[in-house]
Amino acid sequence: MTRVRTVQTNFTAGEVSRRLLGRGDLRAYENGALALRNVFIHPTGGVSRRSGLAFVDTARGPGRLVAFEFNTEQVYLLVFTDGMIDVFRDDAHVIAVPAPWTAGQLGRIAWTQSADTLLICHPDVEPRTLTRDSASDWALAPWAYVVEDGAVRMPFYRFAAPEVELTPGGTAGAITVTASAPVFDPLQENTRLRIRGRQLLITGVASATEVQATVQGDDLPSADATVLWDEQAFSPRRGWPVAAAFHQDRLVIGGSRDLPNRLWLSRSADLWNFNLGTGKDDEAIEFGILSDQVNAVRAVFSGRHLQVFTSGAEYMVSGDPLTPANIQVNRQTRVGSPVDRTLAPRDVDGATLFVSRSGREVREFLYTDAEQAYRSTDLALVARHLVRGPRDQDFDKNRRLLFVVMEDGSVAALTVYRAEQVTAWTRLSTDGAVRSVAVVGDDVYVLVERDGAWLVERFDDTLNLDSALVGEAEEPAATWSGLDHLEGRTVGVLADGAMRGEVPVLLGRVTVDPPARRVEVGLPYAHTVEPLPPSALAPAGAGDRVRLVEACFRLEDTAALRVDLGRGPFELPLHRFGPRPAGDGPPARVSGDRRLRALGWRRDIDAPLWRIEQDAPLPFTLLSVTMELKVND
Question: Which of 325, 453, 420, 346 is nearest to 390 (CA)?
């Protein structure tokens, strides 16, 4: 019989898959856990009960959350829903702006921001700019390209076959244009043609071979038939841009419905001018991404280089600076991004995190000086069970957490700290389904569907309940109202810091007994910490039976601890080790080691030796666990 002492000093590998139970040789096994649910994993190694969710407002329905940061002091949350954008600042509704996107289209919108303007793209909807003129004055308008002498400096492209000719019926004013093959469509009305470098506005479509048009700006040099013509690249017939970004003082447009693998870069310092000119250094750039497969652009991202994420590969666009003469496009990796939904890549410490096309991986796109190229590392390799169909993501720099919203309504939270090799996953859940996430300044907002209601909520470190509201009164009160969003639900109540159990919400009110000056009311949730079983490579896992003699939990600022050591859950009375609360006041918070003895031998040595699971809405932080074991050889 062998006595063994083991210490789990941190949880920096996060929750790992059960498929690793035979891989005790991995570092992830030493610092991982079998279950970490509803906890935040700190880069330093400890875990804390996750923050509660503060109720902000009801949403109009299914939607998407977008951050808008005008400056460090003025940050806004944009809630996109069916035909509307609601603007919030400091949790207060500012204005509602009518919008053209339906609920079914919101999953594929892409956006980028410059100063007070947000550019929004969707391949089936004309792109818009959302402009903040003042805190309460917002306007949504179509993209406005530079106009010079009647010519709109938008991208143009030749969609028709090279041999198709156009014959203008004149050189100025209103004319008829005839094609040698059927190339026109009624959807081209009010769009532009370009013949021999001159632009014409189509005013009517008579047939597939004839349109009426008005010459814009300079007259046509000739009325002869010519193959020197093209049409505007984006239109109701050809589709609209898929993505956009700003890079090296240029506006970059990535792909469209009918030109999925093409990129356009505006003139330098002239963001809405896409005139190619004669190829001078500051003029616009246009090119297609050609390879052995169709690579439809899904996102463009400005990092160390211009990064292009497509349906089948990732590309680096280099040039210092980017000019028509020196631009280079090189494929880096072959992973691909989702095609049915737009998930914006996020920058984390110089690496770009993106979701793979399979929907089972979150990849780190990182440039390596040794290889002078990018590599793509799967950050979800050891926690594949947590990544299933991502639908939204954003990164919280304060907590160093990447929040990834899954199709099943859960949130996989990834703690990333590359300098210390921390890559730790945990699963967050609530009574309902999370559908979108956005980090706005220092706050993380989520859009939650609860029993058919759509709610905007915010992670709040001072709360331990979800969809929660806090009320305060000068004198103790028994009835608290304003809970219409929780009507008919059974909620948890913290009154003056003490747990009061669960009560129903009736007519938007709850009653607490005895009365209290301050209450927190919301939906309860449970957090779980379950370690991996002893590794077969370690002394504790080398026998056929094992006995947990004692477990020592190192806590920090913790008010409740409920542990199962194999004989059922046990509530550790922490107040015995700290100051006892007076009367019915809040429980004391303690820091330090708390020891618990255990009894009984176990033959199932592949099972965890302890488990923490509790729904008490009280603070909890676990730093490390030390176990004393006996192993029967």
Answer: 346
Name residues whose C-beta falls within 8 Å of residue 122's C-beta, 6 or more positions apart in sequence: 101, 105, 108, 109, 110, 240
Are 274 and 260 in contact by the 8 Å Cβ rule? The answer is no
Would you call 511 helix, strand, or coil by DSSP? Answer: strand
Is residue 200 within 8 A of residue 192, CB to CB? The reply is: yes
Q: What is the mean pLDDT of the chain?
A: 92
Sign of the Cα torsion 539, 544, 550, 554 reads positive
Distances, alpha carbon 473 to alpha carbons 267, 476, 491, 496, 502, in Å: 60, 7, 20, 11, 21
User: What totals of helices (H) and strands (E) does the chain contain, helices first?
Assistant: 1, 54
| pTM, 2 dp | 0.94
Question: How many other CB atoms are there within 10 angstroms of residue 151's CB atom?
Answer: 18
Compute the half-sphere exposure of residue 63: CA atoms within 13 Å on the CB side of its CA. 26
391-404, pLDDT tens digit by residue? 999 999 999 999 99
Q: What are phi and psi of 156, to 5 degrees?
A: -125, 160
> What values do phi and psi take at 208, rounded to 5?
-70, -10
Under 8 Å between Cβ of 628 and 550:
yes
Whether the CA torsion 90, 93, 97, 103 is positive or negative: it is positive
Q: What residue type is 576 in one-letter code?
A: R
CA distance 484 to 312: 47
